[in-house]
Design goal:
The chain is α+β, with helices and mostly antiparallel strands. The protein contains five helices and ten strands; from the N terminus they run αβαβββββββαααββ. The protein is globular, with a radius of gyration of 17 Å. The protein starts with a helix and ends in a 9-residue tail after the last strand.
């Protein structure tokens, strides 16, 4: 829903709600929500830095664990090949149902939808961000679009939108 927050409207249905959490707080958070009835939801991409928990009635929450570095930025992923995440990349503001919420930047959202087998919903999200904020998509995202034509306004790696400034 961070994408929808940046776009200012819900653009598709969601299976879960994504959260970025700090590693230093993750164990405490998991313990607290388990005490409130949350259960592990097993997914094919479950890792120590990305896991889903949910309620018995199917409300799922996707947790992405960031580890704070000494310089105030973060890392995400495996310890032997962490992905750097700047504090600025996750310090943006969007709107959900008229409420201002913190979310990652449009650039971060596009960048974070790489390095795995993307799904149609991922391409939907990054394409809308690319169009609204005049941002380029990554080669693997463009390859997906070339293999699955959708009649979208992405041409040879560039966006043809009017270019709207990100809200951050």
């Amino acid at each position: 829903m961070g994408v929808d927050a940046l776009l200012g409207e819900q653009t598709r249905s969601h299976e879960d709600l994504d959260f970025l959490i700090e590693k230093a707080s993750s164990e405490r958070l998991v313990t607290a929500i388990r005490e409130r009835g949350f259960i592990d939801v097993h997914t094919n991409d479950h890792t120590p830095w990305n896991f889903v928990m949910g309620t018995p009635n199917g409300k799922n929450f996707d947790f992405n664990v960031l580890e704070r570095a000494a310089d105030g930025d973060y890392t995400y992923g495996e310890a032997d090949k962490p992905i750097p995440v700047t504090a600025a990349a996750i310090d943006c503001t969007g709107t959900i149902a008229g409420r201002s919420v913190r979310c990652p930047t449009p650039e971060f959202q596009i960048d974070s939808h790489t390095g795995y087998t993307v799904k149609e919903t991922d391409i939907h999200d990054v394409t809308l961000l690319s169009e609204k904020f005049d941002l380029l998509l990554h080669p693997e995202q463009l390859a997906y679009l070339a293999e699955h034509p959708r009649g979208l306004a992405i041409i040879t790696g560039t966006s043809i939108s009017a270019g709207v400034s990100p809200p951050c």
